[in-house]
């Protein structure tokens, strides 16, 4: 496949474009995804607040729908439309806004297939921005994927690069189940090699981003690139880490993590989500439960403190797990002895 | 201001034009709902039915009058926790419904849904719903799917007076109007949201009055008169199919049983239920009207009563004899397996 460097934002736009081209049942809805409906100015002025859907409105007439600011209304509409033959992709601008529409995700979309005895499919994809780093403060910066991972019936995807974003979004749209797709807002301009052709990345298959022998580091979403920074520094100290990107946290590929821990005997889990009941605690618990005998040291978790995301740059920088935090954790488990 | 039928248009469907076969269908549906609910009431008292059950007896004219206009393939309804009547009126099979309420493998949802979640997408029945106000946003989606596909289908959201105060319902009314959706919102005002009187909980004089604020017609209908419901909903559904947008109907009546089975209903007036049963009952009124006008005979109606009674008897006998779900069943019909 011919590849070239494009941004995370462009990769997502390309996945949407290609899926809309190949399947006429795919529609997009969200606040300002068509660039601001009803005004006197130009059409498609915005393409969503961060321009991710820019250009789609003109390419796919009638299939890119602006919504009022009414998250319960349109997330519910996307869910309802999914039960009647469409494959809606709803943009929930910030995942923090799930607070005003959670019922339609948690009690409706997630439950239909099971509650109706397997007789319903709900192929809806909800795209949302997550994560800290843009000084967006407490109501626009959370990493809420653990909240959705907790709910049976949902699939939860957290892409770590432009390549992952494109392939995982295509898979999300083709999947017959409701998918919550987490886009890190600080990554939209990150570039990477992405094939021009359409491709999918299967759910529940972790990616070994970097092979190593001494410590297994599982990192989620943007934390994968932070772990890569840490790896370079640790190399200088003679410590080789194996970085695993789960890609989807529900379903979770525990086997790949267990295989790595069998080799290294040491585990650090890096998660940008708040530290209680997050993906780091979940993976740690499962590894300890399944592979206690393989562990040569206690499992370490690198997460933010249990506080809302602060506004001031100095505070937010302290909040977000850093490469140095990962280095410290890796050194602790490497040096640990009874 | 609330609009009345006369301001909606003179080409409203005429109930006096219903054929003998159609009249018998209407009666059979109402009688089936009544017999079903009366029997579930009795069976619940024996302790054989698990969980929470909310009965629709007294409200039969609403589901029956509205669904008489609907197509099983094209049109979708969303229901409430008080959903048995909507299921029966939309054509969901009665025996699997009864088995579902008893929690058996032969149930509509294989025993995974229960009374509050009976659904059959093949009949355009998107489920009873345990969340007050859960359905209206979903119906925006099914109506959107019909509009995009251009198949002439409509979506009907049944909801109660309690749900009329939920944000989800109000968002759905606005969104349906903004998108000009083929949607009909049927507010079933039975006088009580759980134990609180709707005269207290609804800030407007009538729920239908709120329609004006959403730019759609609002109609108040006598919920004890199936012909009134048939005509008012027929007009709203016709408008929706022709691209005229959404409508809000408020159907006023009372329920014969409590909010849930076991409710002692001490919050209700002393003679409220007795008065409704004696003087307003939709089945009595139907029988009196059609026999006095000579459109049907008592013998024809008695015959329907006997057939329905036999069906309900068989449904209960078969439901009781059916197997309960076993240890292999909990992990099926779910999106993600753990």
Give the arrangement of secondary structure elements.
The complex is a heterodimer of chains A (about 350) and B (about 350).
Chain A: E1 3-7, H1 8-22, E2 26-30, H2 56-59, E3 64-66, H3 71-82, E4 87-94, H4 102-109, H5 112-115, E5 125-130, H6 145-149, E6 155-157, H7 162-174, E7 179-184, E8 191-195, E9 207-210, E10 215-219, H8 223-236, E11 241-245, E12 248-250, H9 254-264, E13 267-270, H10 279-291, E14 300-302, H11 313-319, H12 323-335
Parallel strand pairs in A: 2-3, 2-4, 4-5, 5-7, 6-7, 10-11, 10-13, 13-14
Antiparallel strand pairs in A: 1-8, 6-12, 9-11
Helix pairs in contact in A: 1-7, 3-4, 8-12, 9-10
Chain B: H1 5-8, H2 20-46, H3 60-67, E1 76-78, H4 84-90, H5 94-101, H6 135-149, E2 155-160, H7 167-178, E3 183-189, E4 192-193, E5 196-197, H8 198-201, E6 218-222, H9 226-241, E7 247-252, H10 272-280, H11 282-292, H12 298-321
Parallel strand pairs in B: 1-2, 2-3, 3-7, 6-7
Antiparallel strand pairs in B: 4-5
Helix pairs in contact in B: 2-3, 2-4, 2-12, 3-4, 3-9, 5-12, 6-7
Broad CATH class of chain B: Alpha Beta
Query: How does CATH name the architecture of chain B?
Result: 3-Layer(aba) Sandwich
What is the general shape of chain A?
globular
Which structural class do the helices and strands of chain B define?
A: alpha/beta
Q: Biggest sheet of chain B, strands in spatial order? A: 1-2-3-7-6
* Overall residue-averaged pLDDT value of chain A: 96
Q: CATH homologous superfamily of chain B - what is it?
A: Thiamin diphosphate (ThDP)-binding fold, Pyr/PP domains
- Kindly report the name of the CATH homologous superfamily of the largest domain in chain A: Thiamin diphosphate (ThDP)-binding fold, Pyr/PP domains
Proportion in β-strands of chain B: 5-15%
Tally of DSSP β-strands of chain A: 14
Task: Provide structural commentary.
The complex is a heterodimer of chains A (338) and B (338). Chain A is an alpha/beta fold. Helix content of chain A is 35%, strand content 19%. Chain A is built from 12 helices and 14 strands. In chain A, the strands form 3 sheets. A 7-stranded mixed β-sheet of chain A has the order 3-2-4-5-7-6-12, sandwiched between helices. In chain A, strands 9-11-10-13-14 form a 5-stranded mixed β-sheet, sandwiched between helices. In chain A, strands 1-8 form a two-stranded antiparallel ribbon. In chain A, helix 10 (279-291) links the parallel strand 13 (267-270) and strand 14. The N and C termini of chain A lie far apart (50 Å). With 338 residues, chain B is of the alpha/beta class. Chain B has a single domain (5-321), classed as Thiamin diphosphate (ThDP)-binding fold, Pyr/PP domains (Rossmann fold, 3-Layer(aba) Sandwich), CATH 3.40.50.970. Chain B has helices spanning 5-8, 20-46, 60-67, 84-90, 94-101, 135-149, 167-178, 198-201, 226-241, 272-280, 282-292, 298-321, and strands spanning 76-78, 155-160, 183-189, 192-193, 196-197, 218-222, 247-252. Chain B has a 5-stranded parallel β-sheet with strand order 1-2-3-7-6, with helices on both faces. A two-stranded antiparallel ribbon of chain B has the order 4-5. Chain B is globular, with a radius of gyration of 19 Å. The model of chain B is unreliable at 1-10 (pLDDT under 50). Classes of the chains: A alpha/beta (338), B alpha/beta (338). At the A-B interface, helix 3, helix 4 and helix 5 of A face helix 6 and helix 7 of B.
